[in-house]
Every structure is written in structure tokens, then in C-alpha cells.
Amino acid sequence: MVKDTLATNHRLIVMTLPLPEKSNGSEIYKLACAGKLISFEETLDGRFLISLSGIMRCRLLDTLEEKGGYRRMKVDFTDYLDDMRPNDIKIERNGFFKTLRSYFDMKGLSADWKAIEKCEDEKLITTLAMLCPFSDAEKQTLMEANSLNERAKLMKVILEMSIFGSGDQNVKKH
Q1: How much of the chain exceeds pLDDT 70, in percent?
Q2: Which SS3 state, helix, strand or coil, does residue 77 take?
Q3: What are phi and psi of 150, to 5 degrees?
Q4: Where do the structural domains in the chain lie, given as residue ranges?
Q5: By CB neighbour count within 10 A (0-12 exposed, 13-18 middle, 19+ buried), where does 23 fall?
Q6: 2-84, what's its fold?
Q7: Does residue 171 surpass a pLDDT of 50?
Q8: What is the 3-state secondary structure (H, E, C) of 29-62?
Q9: Most buried residue, 36, 82, 91, 122, by most Cβ within 10 Å?
Q10: What is the pTM of this model?
């Protein structure tokens, strides 16, 4: 798949998640994300370590003939063209960071908080959605949000639910 992608001009890979009720991964969500392959490294055993930069969401329409051992899909970007436009996201940073710190503490995660606090809101929310150890269902919920503002609000709720579910009372209940 990586070699085939590198041979294209667009270098896009579309990623989605398996539906939770299907343990073998054959059934997948129909909302996916296209990412541009921006770097790769081949390992000694022939695998690839890749970095993707998220471009935009897409709807999976049809399965195409399998090629090279991976699934290929016909996709439609029409409903998600706004993903390519700049966003006017404004999160309430103090409350969000307090919740995020509590979540990281609860999960035993470390972070460069100075770098996180300097990060622009859009990049922050997008990066956290990828890197936080959310469940597949939580990640899918975030991806399905209609706007980046909605995604930020949903993320804060997911963080709070995780904290409250753990018994940590450092974050004020609503």
C-alpha cells in the first residue's frame, strides 16, 4: 500500500476504523479521513513506518477490487469540503487545559505543557484527537463532529467522562 501510494502524485491514504460490533474488522465506518503520506522509513524486516498529515474527511462509497493485500475504496469528499477552509475555533483554554491535565495525570501520560499551551487551537484539537488514548468509538465520534468547535466541545466531554469514570474528583462536575 505504501509503495503504491508513493507512486501517485497525491500520496493520499484513507483511514477508517472497524465497527465495534465486528471483531474481525471486516465491517468499517463509512466516514473516513484522508491523509497525505509526508514521510516514511522502511524497517529492516520490510515494513514501513509512516507519517500522515490529515487533509480532510470523506465518505466511503464502494469497495473496489483488492490490490496488493489491502482494501481499496471509492470515496466522496463533497460533504467535507469545509475541512479545507480555515477554522474560527475558539476554545476556553483555561478550563480545557485543566481538564486535559487531569486526564493526562489519570492516564499516567507526560507532556510538554509549554508546547501544548503555545499550540494553535485547531492544531491542538486535531493532534489530541489522534494522540490521546481514546477508544475507537470516541475517535469516530470526534471525527463525525460537524465543526472543529463541536469537536473541541465533544473532546472536553470525553476527557471529563474518563476522569469521572476513574473516580478522580479534581475536575468540577456539571
Answers
A1: 93
A2: coil
A3: -65, -40
A4: 2-84, 93-166
A5: exposed
A6: 2.30.130
A7: no
A8: CCEEEEEEEEEEEECCCCCEEEEEEEEEEEEEEE
A9: 91
A10: 0.80
